[in-house]
Structure formats: structure tokens, C-alpha cells
Design a protein that fits this description.
Elements: H1 3-30, H2 39-45, H3 51-62, H4 72-86, H5 113-121
Helix pairs in contact: 1-4, 3-4
Length: 129
């Protein structure tokens, strides 16, 4: 392959990743979830087999407070249903450069009970999804 062929491959992969991210972030928004994924998050999660399992791992690692109200399976299926309505394909990812899963940064714990309570009150109502 010459360099221009690599550029075409890279831009096609970038477009696919953007479409995937748009679909996921739209699904999160539709469900009232405060998630935003970027390309590095998508690439890191690509090491996990299956989109539903990827979403569940993300929720368990970054938003475990949601598991007090909903099961990870329920949330994953709801998100995946909305995502697939926008973009049904699953993008094949190149994950050689992604850091190991045990290096995923976790969000810092909430600092006060008041902060936890106020956030939990704002949990999205996913009934009827």
C-alpha cells in the first residue's frame, strides 16, 4: 500500500468510529444519561467481546451508582436498543494500542452525602424503554 491508501483506510475507520460514537452518545442523551464517549473509550471497550458487555463494563466501572436503581443488563439493553436504532453496525476496532482494561480511570467518588442524594434524585426514568 502506498501512503495515500493508508490515509483512505484511516479516514474510513475514523468515519466509522465517529458514526459509532454519535449513535452511542445520542442513545445516552435520549435516555437522560450523563455519559459521553470518545474514541479512546470506544477503543478501550472494544477489548470486551459484545456491545452489551462493553456497555455493562463501562457502567460498572464509571457509574456504579446507577446499579442501585437498575441492573446493568437492563441499562445495557436499553442503551444498545437506542444505539442500534441509529447505527446498527458494530465497528471493528484496532485495539493493539489501547491500555489494558485494569488501567481504566474510575471517576472519583462523590464527596458528600448531599452530592450523592442530589445526583440520585436526577436519575433518568427508563420505564417504557
Amino acid at each position: 500500500m502506498n501512503p495515500s491508501q493508508f490515509d483512505v483506510c484511516d479516514s474510513a475507520q475514523d468515519a466509522e468510529v465517529e458514526a459509532q460514537l454519535c449513535a452511542y452518545n445520542s442513545a445516552f442523551d435520549e435516555l437522560g444519561l450523563r455519559f459521553r464517549w470518545d474514541a479512546s473509550t470506544l477503543e478501550l471497550l472494544a477489548r470486551i467481546d459484545g456491545e452489551e458487555a462493553q456497555i455493562a463494563a463501562y457502567i460498572e466501572g464509571h457509574h456504579p451508582h446507577l446499579l442501585k436503581a437498575y441492573s446493568s443488563g437492563f441499562l445495557s439493553r436499553a442503551i444498545l436498543e437506542k444505539k442500534k436504532a441509529r447505527y446498527p453496525a458494530r465497528v471493528p476496532m484496532h485495539v493493539e494500542s489501547a491500555p489494558p482494561l485494569n488501567h481504566v480511570d474510575r471517576q472519583p467518588p462523590m464527596s458528600s452525602r448531599r452530592e450523592r442524594v442530589s445526583y440520585e434524585v436526577e436519575l433518568p426514568a427508563l420505564a417504557g424503554v
